[in-house]
Amino acid sequence: MKPGLFRRRRPQAVDQYGAPGRGSGTLISAVTIVVLLGGWWIVTQLGLIRPLFLPAPEMVIAKFAKIACTEHYFERLLVAVGGLAEVEAKCHGFSDHTLHEHILWSLYRVFSAFALATVTAVPIGISMGMSRHARGVFDPPIEFYRPIPPLAYLPLTIIWFGIGESGKLFLIFLACFAPIAINARAGVRSVSIEQIHAAYSMGASHGQVLRQVVLKAALPEILTGMRVAIAFGWTTLVAAEMVAAKAGIGVMVLNAARFLATDIVFLGIIVIGAVAFVFDLIMRRVERALVPWKGRM
Amino acid sequence: MTTVVSLDRVTVEFPAVDGEGVVRALDTVSLEFRDNEFVVALGASGCGKTTLLNVIAGFLQPTSGKILHRDEPIRGPGSDRGVVFQKHALLPWLNVLENTAFGLKLQGVARDERLSRARDYLALVGLSDFERYPVYQLSGGMQQRVGLARALTCDPDMLLMDEPLGALDAFTRENMQELVLDAWSKTRKVVFFITHSVEEALFMATRLIVMSPRPGRITHTYDIDFSRRFFETGNARQVKSSPEFIALREEVLSIIYGEETGDAQP
Ligand SMILES: Nc1ncnc2c1ncn2[C@@H]1O[C@H](COP(=O)(O)OP(=O)(O)O)[C@@H](O)[C@H]1O
Ligand SMILES: [Mg+2]
User: Fold this and answer.
1) Which residue among A191, A271, B142, B167 sits deepest, i.e. has the most Cβ atoms within 10 Å of its Cβ?
2) Cβ–Cβ < 8 Å for B154, B79
């Protein structure tokens, strides 16, 4: 068979006359990033802005080394491989914890809440798509709380759950729940009636249609919902950690702000941005691996 | 010849779009499908062809009338009546072979067994070399061949096809007509095939039913054998350009156009 019989794997990006947004923007983005970072460096180097308001990049990097205890861990590594007798560099971290402990605490909170939201919101969203009863029950509460900013119901979670871990998880859980449920519900609609009819006319039961057709067809949108949810969860993290948390990236930023340690605030913000970016990258990879047909059928 | 499916004065009504009264999509249609027949329904849009197919498939219950499959009333869809759709019916998360074996999987057939049976039908539609391909990488014609193989793999009594070639380009379409006829002659199913194309209908049918809208009903029936001539000569163009074929084509066209102008000037 000739390869010409196949559709192209990906539609070619043709530079057509009048096509909106044609051409690649990557180079321009690179230039933008360089200009921003360069501008930051120059402005601080010339002393145009006081470090309290805008710390120099090298200050932020130095703080990173200090809080992450890079030297301490490097020496421990050397000791482990036998290159050094004993560890001398001290490790203080910030707010009693090193950077990686802060990050791990935050990851633990975001991921537990996200996992909890996924296992509850997917079945509820699917049932909302499949049955008018479930839709009637779940639609009002979800649509009601969805647009409320988490900071507004933060006091309520404190009253209900106290200042322990469960209140923080609940807050992040709520932020993750709605996007997953809504996308799962929308995903049900992406199954075509022909696919369902085909399954029934090959002897499928209702349960088989649900598990082997509807759920699979909804998977791309469920994953989109999860991607949005993890971003929401990460956004809500700082609010959740405002209340009596000992460790966490959010705690680190809030405490640093109290001491006007702007370099640590910057560091925290950069870490939050970087982790969120990595999440998104991973979710995209997962998407490409699990639903390669997305948008192609 | 045994009767596989029979419809007795079947009527289907839908609520009208404007909310008042009903649309009679089928009006007391009686029809029998006998062993090894290739029945083609032809007619303008909205004359009830899809409704008729949905009733036979069991997707739709008639408002009145009886519909029997081997003397048992049809109450819903089942694997004894396979359906091939115009498009959007394959499962993109499964490859060509898994799509073809999907019906057997639903029925709980063991993996090796179902894959080997699916391979037989993929060979029948000429897709043996593509069993590992994702379906979304296939051309439209090849996707329809997967749809046909999938329906055949369940070994139904009857094959229902709603404009299966309607979305294909003219060249692919003519090839597919021969492929469907070939599959039919080898598997001996009863086929109910819907089309818009008069030429396709005449070429493929052993019985042609011409339908007419408002209310949907069968106005003409022809017993024809152009497909048999094609099997004898193997030359589709020769069959389609024979004087008898052209004469009948003009007759059917005049029926269809006659109705349309008749409708326009009541
Ligand atoms: N689900 C439905 N609800 C209301 N009217 C319908 C429905 N399905 C079909 N109809 C009407 O029934 C008539 C026949 O439709 P259909 O069987 O789809 O025709 P065809 O397949 O020949 O184009 C049309 O007038 C159509 O508008
Ligand atoms: Mg139709």
Assistant:
1) B142
2) yes
